[in-house]
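Hey, can you fold this one?
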Amino acid sequence: MHRLAEFDGLFIRETTAVNHHTFYMAQKAEREGLAVIDDPNSILRCGNKVYLHTLFEQHKVPMPDGVMLFKHDEDNLVRAVDALGLPLVLKIPDGSFSRGVVKVKTLTDFKTQLTELFNQSSIILAQRYTFTEYDWRIGVLNGQAIFACKYFMARNHWQIYMHGKTKTQSGGFTTCAVNEVPVHVLQAAIKACAPIGDSLYGVDVKQDGDKVYVIEVNDNPNIDDGVEDLHLGNKLYDMIVEDFIRRIELKR
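Sure. Predicted structure:
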């Protein structure tokens, strides 16, 4: 961290969190005048699913119906089931890679899972469950879509990642050209990023026919060799470097 001032830019590729060295690095780099991806504001905003839900509501971003549940409220269960029905999905604010996100099918399951999640957070987001075979992941940089993937659910599971006691399984993927993505999926992804910032984001979108639902915006999206870069190859990395150069020149 003490060497940051020697550089023009900081590109964070580690999973970020607010109470984490990645956030402190981003803050310091921004104070030193570096071009930063992920910038501190993006880490703050994307790292809280409850905040994102409120932000999407304000900016009319299409998303699953949801309600906030609070630890000491006695009517949480009734309110959520009346509004959303069953099954539904419960999320802690700062979960990642499918951790801290559970699906409940029955009232008994709801009570059990809610109790466990309230041990991790005093606020839980409950959302209507929508089944899809895959989630779109749209990579957005400076307000423009730069890559697109379909992430399929893990075998016999409702999420992309299935965490076991000894190992984690994940579903397959298909990488697409951006111009192959349905227009309403791209529009929803870009709209979701606008109130967050102009950094590099990975937007998870569920498509159900003509309807789309933004699930979340990730401030530190995977860009893995042979996955997200499968269509563009090195051109994808050129685009990121060129945007860093643009940001550096703007600061100068």
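The chain has a mean pLDDT of 92. Let me know if you want another pass with a different chain boundary.
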